[in-house]
């Protein structure tokens, strides 16, 4: 059997790795926020919860912060900056450089972006 190169899959507006990035942000905000509240107001929370939960909150808080920083500097940097389609720089950071050719690689995103825009 001969290996052949198949065409790349077409995604909608956001790819699955971008959706995971967005999900990770909301998950991290919940974990960091709730554990931070535990450590910020320990006397309030230890009125009705055991004191060892403050120590657990510290561990969860620091582990989530380390996980978020590690994810940003490895997975996110690769998917956002070092992908072959975007290297050496993604021009979407400059509004003047964002053209329809950027959307031509993804037909669904291009039609979605142009749907409400008047013709020039």
Structure, described:
The protein has 120 residues and is mostly helical. The protein folds into 2 domains: 16-82; 90-114, no CATH class. It is 59% helix and 0% strand. It contains 5 helices and no strands. Helix 1 packs antiparallel against helix 3. The mean pLDDT is 78.
Provide a quick synopsis of the model:
The protein has 120 residues and is an all-alpha fold. Helix content is 59%, strand content 0%.
Mind sketching the topology for me?
Layout: H1 16-40, H2 42-45, H3 52-81, H4 100-103, H5 107-114
Instruction: Provide the low-confidence segments as ranges.
Output: none
Total strand segments: 0
Strand content: under 5%
Derived structural class? mainly alpha
- Domains, number: 2
What is the residue-mean pLDDT, rounded to a whole number?
A: 78
Brief descriptors of the model:
mainly alpha, 120 residues, single chain
